[in-house]
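Readers of this paper often ask what the protein records in our data store actually look like. The remainder of this section carries one protein's record, kept here as part of the documentation.

:::
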Amino acid sequence: MKKLKEISMFVPACNEEGNIERMISSALSVLKRIAEKYELIVVVYAGSTDNTISIARAIAAKNRKVKIVYQPKGRKGMGIALRMGFESARYNLLFYTDSDNQFDLEEIFLLLPHIHKFDIVAGYRINRQDPGYRIFMADVYNFLIRSLFGVKEIDLDCAFRLCRKEVLENISLNCRTGLAAAELIVKANKSGLRIKQIGVHHFSRVAGTSDVVQPLFGLIKFPKVTPILKVLKEIALLRLGVI
């Protein structure tokens, strides 16, 4: 494949000390084969309580291609991290994913051939490798979004997407929570933007834990109620056209 002229990649990171070094290494390995000019933006939440920040900062100090953007403590939320990633990108072609290494970054090569015909190329997870309760919640969530907003995409919060920065000139992301990923698809559909879905493989977490779960009676993990309520509130506001 002929190299692209340029591309920006960004990954949000919060308490991912066991993942961030491998993620950055994998991303740089892929990026240098994809484009002549590239950058990797790590949107680090300033409230991280482990060594994520120091690890990312040390790598960036040695590699000019790695840029650290700090998400303020008072502005926690995946939606804010996504906006900061988009706003910080230098190049028009933009890819984002999670920093938990649950995707194979080599599969970005599956998305690239389609970006010339589509505004957004969105990955969807093949055989999602998450705990059963998360898969159940995701199924309910996707059904709810598709029913309320009339979109056809099947994996609305999959963090494996390629798009052009100019997409954000036509739509605005206002959600603070992880609903922002679905908000992007909902508003892109409404604006008549072209979206292509591509299946990508998904892998189990090998380090770190999701911050939306908590132990129940010290035995099993259970979803935290507060994040769910925040997402439901934003779904209602998005449906009403308030955000």
User: Anything to note?
Assistant: The radius of gyration is 17 Å. Residues 51 and 83 are 24 Å apart (CA to CA). The chain is about 35% helix and 25% strand.
